[in-house]
Amino acid sequence: MTGTSGDRLRIGVVGCGSISEAYMRNAALFNGVEVVACADLNPATASKRAAEFGVTAMEVDDLLAAPEVDLVLNLTVPAAHFDVTMRALAENKHVFTEKPLSDTAAGGRAIVAEADKRGLMVGSAPDTFMGAAGRTARGLIEEGAIGRPVIGTAFMMGRGMEHWHPDPSFYYQPGGGPVLDMGPYYLTMMVNLMGPVSRVHAVSTSGQTERLITAQGPKQGTTFPVETPTSVLSLLEFACGAKVTFGASWDVFRHTPPPIELHGTEGSLRLPDPDNFSGVIGLSRAGAPWEETDTAQFTFGGFNWPTVNPDRANYRMVGLAEMARALREGTRPRASAGLALHVLEVLEAVLTAGGTGRAVDVAPVDCQPEALTEDDAKALLQ
Length: 382
Known about the structure:
This protein is of the alpha/beta class. The chain has helices spanning 18-26, 43-53, 60-65, 78-90, 105-118, 132-142, 177-194, 318-329, 337-356, 374-379; strands at residues 9-14, 33-39, 56-58, 71-74, 94-97, 122-124, 149-157, 197-205, 210-212, 223-225, 231-238, 243-249, 260-264, 267-271, 280-285, 291-294, 360-361.
């Protein structure tokens, strides 16, 4: 395996918050990867996670420099993504980071340039597009089930984070908000299906200037300021010619339309929440009634989370397993830095267009990942 020792990519996790449980638990499902260490700014948090999964707890600096770590899995808050990733690259480590790649597109470009200079690989969440629903939708698009995509809608609508997260203020600062926090799932899925975006139009607003924390915890009942738009409506022009309305909001009490619908010259396609790995795909051929496919039957589709009374498919870590394959074979990973950077540039363009009222052009780079077949997916498992 290029840039590693042995046949497994040895992973050190930086950031041991709630999302780390999914990655660390799921590592056992995949071949070619092994979590060997973890670190957090709070040593007690790292020690707890290390004991839970039988790995070594370290200080952050020690993990970044550790010779037994091949790749740093960056699960820090978005504002720290750039710093931790650049420090890992400086230690000649490959990196896989939670989304977004950086809190700014300029930071994302610097990360890609530094990795290229050092001959290192960077990957980024989300990897949900490699799940059963994303693969099924990609197959239908490629076989021409809806013809040429013409228009579509994508909606991420909800009430925000303060109702369940004990300390949610960072979600509402620059670098956060519904566009940069949840937008990567929607944009990555659509780029996977239709290729890159070339132009963006948008309007934005916020329903409240401050938010009240109602989730249980020491900050329950306190408020915090909102420093980034919490409702954005955009029009995305894809290089393939398709036009998609994308709305992202944390000011919505109830919402009915499906997360993503794409309409082409031969039919329509309906997708489930792209934050999930599976769900029901709907296909209408030339206006016929919806043909529904429950993708739970396919690889990375079966319900496995939470581990007691599973109610959803969560296979976070598949992006790292696929990246380990890419390192072995010397190819581009599907959850690549190039894909993540394009998505970040599009989302930043959405915010810019929403703030200025002017359209923003985006370079339609070659970043659409290679389709992941069912056989490809099965090959990533133990």
